[in-house]
Write a structure and sequence with these properties.
Layout: E1 10-11, H1 17-44, H2 49-86, E2 88-99, E3 107-117, E4 120-127, H3 130-138, E5 142-149, E6 154-157
Parallel strand pairs: 1-6
Antiparallel strand pairs: 2-3, 2-5, 3-4, 5-6
The structure holds zinc ion.
């Protein structure tokens, strides 16, 4: 039907348990440094109310960043667990690869779905992981291991050992 937009595939960043723990540690350190930084600086800045306001704002920002990171780690860990339970591991052919100028995202890989669903034939994965970079260099003669969940329309590239 023209005009009807099929539901899009959602890419899930398969975080390993270790990755989620690392994010949580970073989050905890951020919150702690915000709180401790404020507590330590308050006596020194006593009387300079505008400095206190600025400092309070900066520390609050750091604490909020930490909390956001903590929540994000939980959300992606949950999505990862769901996909690991319902997804099917498949090797998807890399049909095209584009080198990017971004240092952290070295390649944009175009993967072909085994069965085109809802008019969508390709998935795009942007990544700087060495396995994906190698696949990008070898494209179109490369494959990437992917977890696919056709009913939820979610997918995620398996990076090394992150599915164990
Ligand atoms: Zn990747």
């Amino acid at each position: 039907m023209p005009g009807a937009v099929p539901p899009e595939w959602t890419q899930i960043d398969l975080t390993s348990r270790r990755g989620a723990v690392g994010q949580r540690i970073t989050a905890g350190l951020l919150v702690a440094s915000g709180v401790i930084g404020f507590a330590v600086s308050v006596p020194a800045l006593f009387g300079w109310w505008w400095s206190l306001v600025l400092l309070g704002f900066a520390c609050l920002l750091i604490v909020l960043l930490g909390i956001g990171l903590w929540i994000n780690a939980g959300v992606s860990a949950h999505a990862t667990i769901t996909l690991k339970e319902t997804g099917v591991p498949v090797d998807l052919p890399v049909v095209a690869a584009f080198e990017t100028t971004d240092e952290s995202v070295r390649y944009q890989l175009q993967l072909r779905l085994p069965e085109p669903a809802g008019g969508q034939e390709y998935l795009v994965h942007s990544c700087g992981y060495h396995g994906c970079v190698a696949a990008g260099r070898a494209a179109p003669h490369a494959e990437l291991p992917v977890l696919l969940d056709a009913t939820r329309k979610t997918w995620g590239v398996i990076h090394g050992s992150n599915v164990s």
